[in-house]
Amino acid sequence: MYGVYTYLMTTLNVRIDEKVKERAMAILAERGLNLSTGINVFLRQVIEEKGLPFIPGDSAFLRKKYDREVVFAKKGKTYKNAKSLMAAALK
């Protein structure tokens, strides 16, 4: 037996800067998505995360901070287990 699934769809009208729309469409197209699908993915992630699916802010700043933290972590001391970590932390 086959079932027919229908989805209730609605239209969303959003005012957005033309350049932003063009740039977003180009990026999504590179990934095989159209703008409508990209917006649907975003909205589903908002629901999943119960908020924005990213931390808003200066991405260049955050990237630099992340890169510095990775370098710091790679240079840092490592421990074989939690017991040795706690012993060092409590010194």
Please tell me how large the radius of gyration is: 22 Å
Distinct helical segment count:
4
Q: Ends: how far apart?
A: 69 Å
The helix-strand sequence is HHHH
Which range best describes the helical content: under 10%, 10-25%, 25-40%, 40-55%, 55-70% or over 70%?
A: 55-70%
Mean pLDDT: 88
Structural class: mainly alpha
Features:
single chain, mainly alpha, RelB/DinJ, 91 residues, toxin-antitoxin system, Arc_rbn_hlx_hlx, 4 helices
Structural account:
By secondary structure, this protein is an all-alpha fold. The chain has one domain (18-89). Helices cover 58% and strands 0% of the residues. It is built from four helices and no strands. It has helices at residues 18-30, 35-49, 59-75, 82-89. The radius of gyration is 22 Å and the shape is elongated.
Quick overview:
The protein has 91 residues and is mainly α.
Helix and strand topology:
Layout: H1 18-30, H2 35-49, H3 59-75, H4 82-89
